[in-house]
Every structure is written in structure tokens, then in C-alpha cells.
Amino acid sequence: MALDFRGATEALFDRVRVEDLAGELHCSPQTIKQARMEADTKGRRTPPEGWQSAAAKLAKKRSDQLRRLADKLAAG
Fold it and tell me: For residue range 3-60, what is the model confidence (pLDDT) as tens digits?
């Protein structure tokens, strides 16, 4: 099935959110936000254990989605 402009751009502009990473790590979005703060900021937390694997999983999932979108668009 060919995608229309709106459907294609909706898929293209989709993104990985703080909530997605928090879900993978079984922690709160606030924990992620605090771990992303500058090192000298009050309230900063260390990143949750396993963050690299969780981020890699989400990146792979997103890259697969974009690859499928590119294939559909190239097919016309």
C-alpha cells in the first residue's frame, strides 16, 4: 500500500520519547530527565543501570521503522 504525504510524514517525524526509554528501563520519566541534566546541576542523578542496552534497543527499533518507511516510499 502506498503512503500518502501525511501518513509518510507522520511516520518520518515520529520520535523516541523520554517515556519510551523510561519504560524500557522500568523507571520514571523523571529519572531519565534528571540523569540528562548537566553534571553540576542540583538534582542530577546517575543514569539508570542498563541504559546503553535500552537505548540501543530503541534505536534499532526506530531504524527498522525508518527502513521500512524508506522502502515503501521508494516503491512508490
Answer: 899 999 999 999 999 999 999 999 999 999 999 999 999 999 999 999 999 999 999 9
Query: What amino acid occupies position 30?
Result: Q
Q: What is the pTM of this model?
A: 0.88
- DSSP symbols for 39-53: TTSTT--PPPTTHHH
Q: How far apart are CA 2 and CA 19, in angstroms?
A: 30
Cα–Cα dist 25/19, whole Å: 10
Q: Return d(Cα 51, Cα 6) in angstroms, integer.
A: 33
